[in-house]
Amino acid sequence: MLQFTKVGQDYPEKRAAGDRAADFAEISTSFVVETAEEQSSRCSQCGVPYCSTHCPLHNHIPDWLRLTAEGRLREAYELSNATSTMPEICGRICPQDRLCEGNCVIEFSGHGAVTIGSVEKFITDTAWEKGWVEPLAPGPDRGQSIGVIGAGPAGLTVAELLRVQGYEVHVYDRHDRAGGLLTYGIPGFKLEKPVVMRRVDRLAQGGIVFHQSFEVGRDATLDELRARHDAIVIATGVYKPRAIKAPGVGADGVIEALDYLTASNRKGFGDAVPAWDDGSLNALGKRVVVVGGGDTAMDCVRTAIRQGAASVRCLYRRDKANMPGSQREVKNAEEEGVEFVWLSAPEAFHDTGGTVSGVQVSRMRLGAPDPSGRRTPEVDPGMGERIDADLVIKALGFDAEDLPRLFGSPDLAVTRWGTLRVDHKTMMTSLDGVFAAGDIVRGASLVVWAVRDGRDLAERMHAYLKAKAATKLLEAA
């Protein structure tokens, strides 16, 4: 260990921008064993590891880096898997530059962070290849069942951990495949779909029952599900797109980011997607403008490049230093041909015959900092322009849907943001035996936080269900 003064920082090689922009395969190769060991040996083995502290899962990062450096890959995988239900997924899509790697001590010293995410991906992919990933083994049957609403990372984490405890687990999801945004929201060039599907298959083989294309409120009310199960988990995520209030926003060709990404991912699965085939959700040959600066916007601009757009521009109201998305993603997008128009916001949308033909853009300037510390964008008078566009994708983030109405459960309490109100000690909602985790509680956030919430909730639900079973035994006696 402590080789950071002798061994330079190295990431897996990225494919050439022109090559990777022609397909939806992941853009980077994986480490070979020797490189993974060498890069892991750069770790300084801090007494207080900031990388672990700033990881929502508090992964034992220095420990599995040391095991990797020593060639003990199976032990490294087992330690990584001890705190995360999907380490190879987090290794691919976590914004390590803002979390573990961004807080690496040797990064502060100017030597460049240990490439933690790439090592995490390598050791878990190796575990799958070598057959070290063991089947999900349920514990002794407890005679109790839970229903999980939502098959995203939070819901799948709860489902796995409670199945291991011996509970009967049923997962209800509106889509025809499990995985939530992992499956339909994140493009393959960041997360290839077989990586997600093998996790889902492992859960199904472990006895978790998936009810797909199932909408709560349509196929069963929340109360009906409560009657079927001893406890319920709501882990739906947040899917309501934030709106743009500007003239012309209703023109054809002004579309939602999630509709666009879902259509692209479905096409990758080989599904029939009429809106993709007729061009409504397809960027081929079009001048594309994406509005937003987060990770979803980066997914959209890079997808449009791969679909063969004539040009792709991204409008963001702040500057590059103040954008919420990963700087690595911005760099990847720029390499692939995306043009960023910083300090700009849509003022209106032009149309020709009801179809969008351009975006009237206001130029912005940065004013005083807001409560988050970022400087507030203000319109710079007289500095607007028109940008021609055939397809405009709105990627401004997501809010919670009206679940009390959708689920037919008016007593389900929500916050002023529409997220579910929970007791943060028990993670229970206003309804007894109904718990919630992930983005539907905290708002749109990271996959790693959803996994953390699912892990925490499994512990609390286990305690609740044991107490419930004990009460029944007392009553029966």
UniProtKB/TrEMBL annotation:
Chain segments annotated as coiled-coil in the UniProt record: none
Domain (Dihydroprymidine dehydrogenase) ranges: 21-131
Domain FAD/NAD(P)-binding: start-end pairs: 146-454
Keywords tagged on the record: 4Fe-4S, Iron, Iron-sulfur, Metal-binding, Oxidoreductase
Gene3D superfamilies per the UniProt record, alphabetical: Alpha-helical ferredoxin, FAD/NAD(P)-binding domain
SUPFAM superfamilies from the UniProt entry: alpha-helical ferredoxin, Nucleotide-binding domain
GO molecular function terms listed in the Swiss-Prot or TrEMBL record: glutamate synthase (NADH) activity; glutamate synthase (NADPH) activity
EC number, UniProt record: 1.4.1.13, 1.4.1.14
EC class (word): oxidoreductase
This protein's record includes keyword Secreted: no
Name assigned to this protein: Glutamate synthase (NADPH/NADH) small chain
Provenance organism: Sphingomonas vulcanisoli
